[in-house]
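Note to self: user wants both folds in one dump. Writing first protein now.
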Amino acid sequence: MCGIVGWHSSEDVPGGPVLLKRMLSAIIHRGPDEEGQFIKGPIALGIRRLSIIDVEGGHQPIANEDRTVWVVLNGEIYNFRELRSELEAKGHVFATRSDTEVIVHGYEEWGDECIARLNGIFAFAVWDSRRQRLLLARDPFGVKPLYYYCKGRRLVWASEVKALLSDPSIPRQVDLDALDLFLTFRFVPSPLTMFAGIRKVPPGHCVIKDEKGCRSERYVSIDVACDERLTEKDWIALLQERLEAAVKRQMMSDVPIGALLSGGVDSGVVVALMSRFTDRPVRTFTVGFADSDDINELKEARRTAVILGTAHEEVLLTSLDYRQLLRKVTWHLDEPIATTSALAMYSVCKLAREHVTVVLTGQGADEPFAAYPRYLGELYGALYRRLPTLIRERVVRPLVDILPRSERLKRAVHSLGTEDTTDRFARVYAVFSKSKKDSMWQPGLVGTDGPQHVRGVIDYWRRGVEHLDPLVQMTHVDARLSLSDDLLTYGDKMSMAASIEARVPFLDLDYMRVVEALPPALRIHGITQKYIHKKAIAKWLPAEIIRRRKRGFDTPVDRWFRSELSGYVRSMLLSRDAACLLFFQRQGIEALLEDHLSGREDNRRQLFSLLVFELWYQQFISSQQNDELTA
């Protein structure tokens, strides 16, 4: 796992070697082991390496035999041995044992089609000097991030935005469309970022720069279809076979490896399978919050560790820890992501790094297996829509609206009433509803087309699956939207901030091809969510673990914002020089705070979104220096 940077420019880049060094220094946490550079003519490639595979020989950038094709890779290619054998049979000569090198020879043999052959988590850059062509690519589910800035005849890219901002010619300005989308999703959907002009390569996409200019293309074919032919027993056997193979594949490492363990079934089964492929106890790591037994999974994680015989460690966070970490975590995130568990992820990765260099996680199973409450709403929402409109609009909604602190229920009722699938998805995701956003903006700052931006994001990922059951559509969209740009992004940034590699076996391509073909009735059976998943993993986990109530990776932010952190939040959002007041009306922010403090509403999501935006703006826009964090 690494951090990559570089550029392709038809114009001279003043102080090129110095700039490349500065970009690499900004992401040294991603690769503390070594640095690699290649600058020649219009191209610059740079990498900070965290050595995992072929520690001694896998130095990057890596070239082909005649040094006309070069690559830098952030990530892991899990099927590199199979690809290497195929390429060697075709006459390609390898100089290392590194998984990175298969990309060089794969590009020589198959061109851009080599990307679709890779089973892994990756962001990479390939420079073809013969064709004067640059190829950037990001893995199908966006586990590894990749950002770029293209203007005129120059394209600059990096694993993190802060490396791009090492180039003083790249402006630091807020993208108002991105900010509007952030208020809906709590993250900025690809390809936008919160920085005007800086883009993310979307999951499953590549960016090409050649004599024709710079363009983005989707390389993943959309061939999702539910297979109704297999029996439940067939599905269980197939899921078991693919998951076992995925975990075994992703345990490849030349350095110590462990796992992040919660009290849930997903990380539990990953650890159970890891235990089958090693002759020593798996090292496991858990995070919790002091005085928060109502949301902690510490006891459950400890019990799972005992059952599976792991060497277990845990870390506890307090509200003071949380406040002190917020600024650092926001800096590592690069752009606002208002998911409260990001700080917990950072802390548990810091703990794990004291013992291992690689961890496997349980991330990625909830979306395709329909584990969240919104999936139940989508499956059975049609029953609610059969109620007469008068009852829904004049009875149910007014009754729900007056309930105190029932944010999730209110969002569900407001979303399920519409027949429009895209609109329904947008409403159930929304942190700020359209009416709330309209009341928050400073006058004249944004136009009235915000809802169309939201529709455009959702419709893009629905494209090609609109004919499928709406539940399947929602899982498909989530796996490429909220999973990629929220959970996987903060997972990457927090693990890399601790210089540790986090892998996600549930997003193994061979496994996901099976999961995404599941009929909706096997994802939710009655009201049992993750139905077929739980059936399959019962082979390795006892019923005690499988029957546990799903809690999610929650934090005590709701309570803290009403008690020990209330003054901090108020001062951050309403101080005289608060950035939020440049964009949002004071009375709107005050209303959010007062309603939350009084207990009338649960505004934790809205307040946390504004807080991380404030911290982000202070560090990346207001200030050009972040020495206290990068030292």
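First done. Writing the second protein, which came from a different request thread.
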Amino acid sequence: MFKIKLKRFLIIVLLAFPQISFSAQESIQELEPLVITRQKQFLLNSYSTDSDSAEAFNYQSGLENLSSLPLDLQSRSLAGGIQADFSLRGSTFSQVLILLNGTRINDPQTAHYNADIPFTKEDVKKIEVIPGAGSSLFGPDAIGGAVNFALKEPLEKKTVWEFATGNQRNGYGLFSISDKFKDLGFRISVEDAQSRGFRYDTDYKKFTSSLSTQWQLPLGSWKNSFGYQEKEYGAYDFYTPGMGYPSREWTKTYLLNSNLSLDKDGLLIKPNFLWRRHFDKFALNETVDNYNDHRTDMFVPSIYFQKETGLLGKVGLGLEWGQERIASTNLGKHIRNHQSVYLDDSLALGQKWDLGFSLRLDDFSDFNQVYTGSTNFKFKFTPEAAFNFGISRSMRVPSFTELYYNDSTTIGNVNLTAERAWNYQAGFEYQQEKLSQGLVFFLRQEDQVIDWVRTDSTQKWQARNFTSDDVFGVEYSLHKKINQLFSWDAHYVYTDKVVDSQGYLYKYGPNYARHLVGTTFVLDFPFGRQEIGFNYKQRPGRRGWLLLDAGFNYNLNKNAKIFLSSTNILNVEYQDIAGIPQPGRYIQAGLRIEW
């Protein structure tokens, strides 16, 4: 069976990317040094998309641009990133760590709200995807990997006004202004979006506002970011596929992140404070006056020190304290605390070898102490080509929903324990100015995995630690700049899981992408940037689907452009999550003015 599956994915690789060669002439541009708020994690494969690369498609939300990276973005019937889950290398939606400028912001109630990030696309400079073994440094939940949203620094004078309208009575407006007075920079952004929906109970409204400031100090800088977002959307069968419930959801998100960065004689000191509050009001059946109200709070003060020591390289020490609270009409009132301490080290041995190491201890009030960490190395064959290898240990504590939720179809489990996983990966990368390419083989061994299961249709779905999984696969990425006008990006991920289901039925089924293929063609004409993208996804036991997207731009002058963009041009019928149809063809036109 293993040989048959191996042959199958190799055939798909060859069909999808006929120009693949494993010689030392190819690698991937996205395998760039990844600099977040802690150690420079340059040893393992990472991928990123920045605000400039998202220009041509003119997506309403930066989340939508993640389709160009090897990440499985699982959305539910709504455009604009209104409600979406993240999956990396076959992980569940709860096993991906979400970061804002390197600080964990995962929702403690449920990972279904991890995409509630209260900043507009004008605030986000880059989205970094860190799969597998390179992600455990940043805390719990990084079993499949991590996604970091890096905000722009308000260091320039700039005003942006953008609006667009499309079919399904969709539309949005965005205004952003930034300026700098001596050592103080600021940015204010406001966005409003709404849609009537492509079918019954899929309408939505979204409002986002944010304020970012940066104060340059003699020894560093002080950055503050505050965002607010509220959403209302129809949620037909979002969490009960096939039951026919006309559901509705209202959410509000507040997020404050304050970071001080000081460099004194080579000693880097970074105190940080993060607060996130999330309100959720949910009606499983909006025709009945029966609502669940939830409020969660996260408080995470931390401090990080880093010193260049010479012999030992760059050594970092971090201390973190966190508290998560929930007050809910369904889940009750609960508080849990955790303390963390972590070490990291990055060392270059001559011209050929780079070594990395991290060790972390998390102590949760409701769970046992858990040690996690990683070790990795890179060997450079030539200045352009390198081999890398990494091992990491990661964990995830159950969400409040998994522990305490109860309704007519679903019940939590207060006896859950933390998930644990080992990640192994080995890769090859090659990077030149016009051609870069990377290949990674990965294996993940998961234990005490949590999922919603039952043994027959008469039972409620219940959260259980019920299985140990082996997840393996291969990941390939390519960037090719053909000339000044034309470039090409592509990726392919094959993932398989060996699962002992123990006779249980899954609520959502095995909902990971076995085959994930994406390719984007970019044309940079003098009058504007044009982009065409293809994405193919296939889940176990289901047929795959191919989506075609395009974005066309015309520059009216140096300050203004008009644009036309379309998603699912072929009007393909598909379901990212079984039982929940996705939107068909969507076309929008808009105007952007920037000065």
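Dump finished. Worth passing along: The two ends are 59 Å apart (CA to CA).
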